[in-house]
Amino acid sequence: MMRIGKRRVWLLLPFAALCAFVALPGAPAQPPAKFAGPLDAAAPQTELQVVERVNAAIDRGLEYIHSKQRKDGGWHNNNAINGLATLAFLGRGHVPGRGKYPDVLEKSKQFMLASANPQTGFVSFSTMYEHGLATLALAELYGMDPDPDLEDKLRKAVALIEKTQSPAGGWRYSPTPDNQDLSVTVMQIVALRAASNAEIPVSPKVIEKAVAYVRRCGAPTGGYGYEGPGAGPQTTAAGVLSLQLLGQFNDPNIPKSMDVLRGYLKKDAKEQWESSGVQYFYYFHYYAMQAHYQFGGKHWNEWHPRVRDTLLERQNKDGSWDVPPGTAEGASIDPNKVYTTGMACLVLDIYLHFLPAYQR
Amino acid sequence: MLSWFLRNAGIDSAFVERQGQVALAFDEPRFLWFGLPAVALLGVFIFLRQRRNLRSAPLALVSALTLCRVVVLALLVVVLAGPRARLDVVEEKKPIVAVLFDASQSMGLEAGPFPEDGEEVRKLARAAGYQVGSGGLPPELRKEFNAKTRAKLAQAVANAHKADLFEPLLKKYEVRFYTFARETQAFGIDPANFQLPEPVTEGPVTHLGDSVVQVIALAEGRPVAGVVVFSDGESTGGATLDEAARECQQRGAPVLAVPVGTTKNLNDVSVVDVSSPGQVTLGDTAKVSVLIESRGYDGKPVKVELFDGKKLLDTKEIVLRGSEQQGVEMSFVAADPGPRILAVNVKPFEDEAQKDNNRDLTLLRVSEEKIKVLYIEGPPRWDFRFLKNAMRRDQGLAGRLGDKVDVVLENEWRRLPDAQRAKMLPRTLDELAAYHTVILGDVSPKLLTPEFAALLARAVREKGVGLLIEAGPLAMPHRHAKALLDLLPVQIDPSAPGAFAPTAKPFRLELTPDGALNEVMRLYDDPGRNQSAWSQMLPYQWCINAVRPAAAATVLMWNPNLRNSYGRLPLIAHHTAEKGRVMLVGTDSTWLWRQNVADRFFYKFWGQAVRFVARPDEARKKKSTVEISPVPPRPKEPVTLTVNAFTESGTPVRQETLEVEVTGPGLRRTVSLAPDADARGRYNGAFEFPAPGDYRIAYGSGVTGAEASVTVKRSAEELRYPNVNRAKLRLLAGATGGRVVEMTDADFAKEIVDRIEQSHLQTKTDRTPLSAPVWDNWMVLTLLVVVYSLDIGLRRLAGLS
């Protein structure tokens, strides 16, 4: 197992600032909901049964997120949270104007669009973290919602990402091309990938520079660091996924990175939750699950059941998820648990294959 | 006499059979009350009158003449009164209890092995009517039970419970017995000498859901008190158990499921699913999805191997996990053209319960064709984002000039300067006809102008360009010109942008019989699995405003939720518009087919559809091929033999029939194939391989000939899950208000009878009144003529006028 140096934890703290709002103690955790289990404990669950369990958990999660939506359509004055919540609905196949949650999606879209700067295209209350996630959510809405304002602001948001790429190829908190770190960079890469998939033109030069920057953050061991070569679990998961999303499936570092990530797979769901060794549990699993899916094979086969079962076992009765004990996300957790619940839903959405941005 | 009369009077046989209950009644009895006394008085008057007028006639003659007239008059009065035979048909209708015995091949597996403690086998022996004490079971009996097939065990237990299960049921209910595998067949039992026939377990698949639905349908509206199912619980195709449970729920018929076989879990590794893309092109990286299920080998590594004949294509190692099925994705670069039968193999462990299920086959067609595709879409909706990427990866598809499919997206197109916009689309008929297939998404008339639509219609009709349309609520097809609407295989009502489903009741899709046979809709080669895969697709929220299929169109998929005066509404359909083929996909949510399987079903459908409609490229030389579907074939199961026949110059063979020779163990047979209306040079014919073994199917010889070899094996479907699936039976029974009843339960029979009796269905007495006129027949007419003739005859004989 990789040790997480104090310095690296500090370097990751900016991600905690993603949810840049007042740190409040989390609501008292409710006992984990008991999962009814398969019909016959001895019979292997079929693919369909697995998906039914996952869907049931996501549905409860979405109900929870729905219950926390404000009248103005947002969940927080932080578009990272709003983007995540929106993506959680989309990932379950709820699309604008249809099904159970058309109002939720319309209101959240309106909230994010209203918060966008009409001149610069910055869809954020503070940092590029927010902007990246909000742009991703808007890109996934685009095409399923004919709203011209959505298209206009999405194009501006994508253009802003292109404009704010640093000379080194990365992005940093502020919407200016002066610095970079891997964590913010990956958010922008996913957003660019979604936009490009929707045929919104993205300059190949921007992609080339981003690939070069991510590679510079890779260590020969397969790990990735926050601002340069390193081996933090979160940044490694993010680094691998960003290369995959940028089409670099044959990057020689990826198999080594997958082996690094494997070190964070614990022997059972309890250990995975209580002592996985990652400071930013949801952030890590959001990227790690996608990276494993993209990589496939033995790694994916080992990874997804353990992480899935961990999340299914740890869902609260009200549909929300808490943070595991002792992890860093706990310090800045959204008191409404929309961040953790949205992230957990997105991790589980991997089984549905609905979000176009994450197609293999 | 009465029966002779009734029969000759042309009266219903029900009257003849129940003549003791037949009563005479009159429609207008008042004619009798007034008519007959009047006839009597008239008779006296006639007699007196005749006596006076015919003074020379003897009294007997006058009396006879009077009688004739009275009879005629009386007959007329009776006819006026409308006499009819009346009968109340009283029928006792007992509620029905259907008893189903699984006759699929898996029921031919051993019922054991049973747990070592011997308790289960002891109870089973008792249930099967053996006298067993509380001590240990005699070793011979234990051996006999371990080796008994599941079907024999079911038979023995049913026979042993004649007195406490079937006799009480037969008293109160009409008990109908059936066996089922793919088909459900009724069989009769003499209640006086209750003995189940020897089981035959040859069914290559188990359609448990279909069977339950069918026995309910066979009740023809009569109450069904219960359905008792003796089965090992596996259902390998047909209606889902959910559908069957819904049917039972609606009819208030609980399912009492009796699992047949051991409760012990068998150690086994099974290849439960192999799915190929169906069709790839030389150079494509073909992905084969494999699903492995295991029990008893947790943590053990195994190698999953993919073969084409003896050529190893890919190997993946997995660590077995018994808690759930494990998906493995195999891949290889398609290097050999033609139909390839791929085998997935997991080397069996020594102690595996069932080693035949460690291997399965799938068919993959590797084509050398390059199809030129133009994809025009409106907004970048999700179907577009998945489809264009999948098509760009597909080596068999290209653009007019480049290696990748040509894509025009309206949202980007409208941002271009006018001059550049014009260049994005083909401008002449020849440019458009360079494509084999054009795909239209939810494009607006701004891009797909009436002029371009007219050009496209010409390209389809005159040049044979294939057109594949995926509808959308913004514009397609309701906002488009008549030239485009006339091309569609479905008549639509353009006044509304489609139909939106209520949130609580989204639309479902239903494969039509034509769809079940069509290559576009083939997600699995096996028809049962294919049907099952489509029936499990997620419901959707929007579809076109269809009115009816166009004349001569083939509907592949219905929307069963919407109906109009023409019936169910078509969702996916195709037809031929002069030289070109047109297919309409009437929903915009095929991305929902990605749940859990990503591109596996989504692009199998779209990849097949793009090729199905494509303009045939007759200029390119092609070689003949022979195919068998489904793969792998099973003994005595219908398969389709297909020959794609080409001449030496590569043009499609055109003849009325085409013959292939099938040779195998003790077999040499010529099979005649008929031309396929959907593809030039393609010929299809049905065949059944008589027994397991290696077969060769040969068409022609030399450079124009082709052949295929295939191994026919007993059903892998039936061996995939050797364990008794109690969970599935519990699901079915529980959803219907029934329950699973174990043969080993002390009150096995009582539990079944009690639950059935809880339905409180009583025998119903149906009273059906029948009536038939008894005067409207030749006998009454004859009587009238005879009497009248007698009157005239007597007068003539007596020399009267």
Key terms:
heterodimer; A: 360 residues; mainly alpha; 14 helices; B: 801 residues; alpha/beta; 9-stranded mixed sheet; 7-stranded antiparallel sheet; 22 helices; 37 strands; globular
Class by SSE composition of chain B? alpha/beta
Kindly report the average pLDDT value of chain B.
89
Computed Rg of chain A: 19 Å
Elements of chain A, N to C (H/E): HHHHHHHHHHHHHH
Q: For the report, how would you describe the main beta sheet of chain B? A: 9 strands, mixed
> What is the C-alpha radius of gyration of chain B, as a whole number of Å?
37 Å
Structural class by helix and strand composition of chain A:
mainly alpha
The largest contact between protein chains, plus residue counts on each side, is:
A-B, 41 and 53 residues
> What oligomeric state best describes the polypeptide chains here?
heterodimer
SS summary, helix count of chain A: 14
* Proportion of strand residues of chain B: 25-35%
Indicate the low-confidence ranges of chain A by residue numbers.
1-41
Helix content of chain B: 25-40%
Structural account:
The complex is a heterodimer of chains A (360) and B (801). Chain A is mostly helical. Helices cover 53% and strands 0% of the residues of chain A. The N terminus of chain A is likely disordered. Chain B is of the alpha/beta class and 801 residues long. In chain B, strands 16, 17, 18, 19, 20, 23, 26, 27 and 28 form a nine-stranded mixed beta sheet that branches. Chain B has a seven-stranded antiparallel beta sheet with strand order 29-30-33-32-31-34-35, with no helix packed on it. In chain B, a hairpin with a 2-residue loop joins strand 31 and strand 32. The longest helix of chain B has 25 residues. Chain B is globular, with a radius of gyration of 37 Å. At the A-B interface, helix 2 and helix 13 of A face strand 10, strand 12, strand 13, helix 11 and helix 20 of B.
